[in-house]
């Protein structure tokens, strides 16, 4: 049953991070991937800072912050979309 919660938290956090960083979601599978990787990244960063969260809401906040960080880091490696000749 916990596995289902992790999937739901991953989807929701990926969607929220997509809304924050670029104004839209990425689709259910990419949202899930971004949310799961964001959860790992957020947990690592929170651990470095000595911040502990608990429960579903704490997991969601950690995942969203990690997913936003992930999308911010990825944005440095993407080409600009509005390059004109």
TrEMBL record:
<keyword id="KW-1003">Cell membrane</keyword>
<keyword id="KW-1133">Transmembrane helix</keyword>
<protein>
    <submittedName>
        <fullName>GlsB/YeaQ/YmgE family stress response membrane protein</fullName>
    </submittedName>
</protein>
<keyword id="KW-0472">Membrane</keyword>
<dbReference type="InterPro" id="IPR007341">
    <property type="entry name" value="Transgly_assoc"/>
</dbReference>
<dbReference type="GO" id="GO:0005886">
    <property type="term" value="C:plasma membrane"/>
</dbReference>
<feature type="transmembrane region" description="Helical">
    <location>
        <begin position="6"/>
        <end position="21"/>
    </location>
</feature>
<keyword id="KW-0812">Transmembrane</keyword>
<feature type="transmembrane region" description="Helical">
    <location>
        <begin position="55"/>
        <end position="77"/>
    </location>
</feature>
<comment type="similarity">
    <text>Belongs to the UPF0410 family.</text>
</comment>
<feature type="transmembrane region" description="Helical">
    <location>
        <begin position="28"/>
        <end position="49"/>
    </location>
</feature>
<dbReference type="Pfam" id="PF04226">
    <property type="entry name" value="Transgly_assoc"/>
</dbReference>
